[in-house]
Design goal:
Length: about 230
């Protein structure tokens, strides 16, 4: 791991969510002051959802926020298992970010077409101000899974044969996710211990492919134990 990777170990998943929430708001303020906008990539998962519920209760200059998604499942647009539906319910429907600044992945069109369309969106957006990511038990992040091969130069990948349903997904690439002023990983739960150990010891996991100049890992004791 690069020297710019900082680990922050906290007691509980709630503590991880609170620390990330505060960091996001601070980063947003700085980005808006310096560049007039804040470009944030959202993650799916239970700990990010806690972060979004906190954001929904906060005050921010929402008119300057631009929202993107790290990955999406190829499901109907209103399906409960879509990351966009979770984020909408927990956060976006409760604040006043302009609709034109919310860039959902059109995954309902299928992986190939959605990838082609979202590639243009991401090309115009880079670099991001902050990318939020989680990690699965197998070391995957976004929808970048172990054993899957993608063109390293792509900004967005069509994902087939996902080990978790549904099989078709769309994911921003490691290259584009790393093209950010700041990357934050949220890792919680004892079921992540083995993947954390492998990551820290230099194994070739998808999560290790995210390279950026400024990476912060917020992790709870359950996930970090034994590392």
């Amino acid at each position: 791991m690069k020297a710019s990777t900082h680990w922050h170990t906290l007691e509980t998943a709630d503590d991880v969510a609170l620390a990330a929430y505060q960091r996001i708001l601070d980063t947003a303020k700085s980005a808006i002051a310096e560049r007039g906008q804040f470009k944030l990539v959202l993650a799916g998962g239970t700990t990010p959802e806690k972060v979004y519920r906190l954001l929904a209760l906060s005050d921010a200059d929402w008119s300057k926020w631009h929202i993107y998604y790290g990955d999406e499942r190829c499901l109907p647009i209103d399906h409960k298992d879509r990351n966009s539906v979770m984020a909408e319910q927990a956060f976006i429907s409760k604040v006043v970010i302009p609709k034109a600044q919310i860039f959902t992945i059109p995954a309902e069109l299928g992986a190939e077409q959605a990838t082609t369309l979202y590639q243009q969106t991401i090309k115009a957006a880079l670099p991001f101000d902050l990318v939020l990511l989680g990690m699965g038990e197998d070391g995957h992040t976004a929808s970048l899974f172990p054993g899957h091969k993608h063109d390293a130069e792509e900004l967005v990948h069509a994902v087939y044969n996902s080990p978790k349903p549904p099989p078709e997904r769309v994911s921003i690439s490691a290259k584009a996710l790393g093209n950010a002023r700041q990357v934050i990983f949220l890792i919680t739960g004892s079921n992540k211990q083995e993947a954390v150990k492998l990551w820290r010891s230099g194994h070739d996991l998808p999560i290790a492919s995210i390279l950026s100049d400024n990476i912060d890992i917020y992790i709870d004791r359950d996930a970090y134990q034994g590392s």
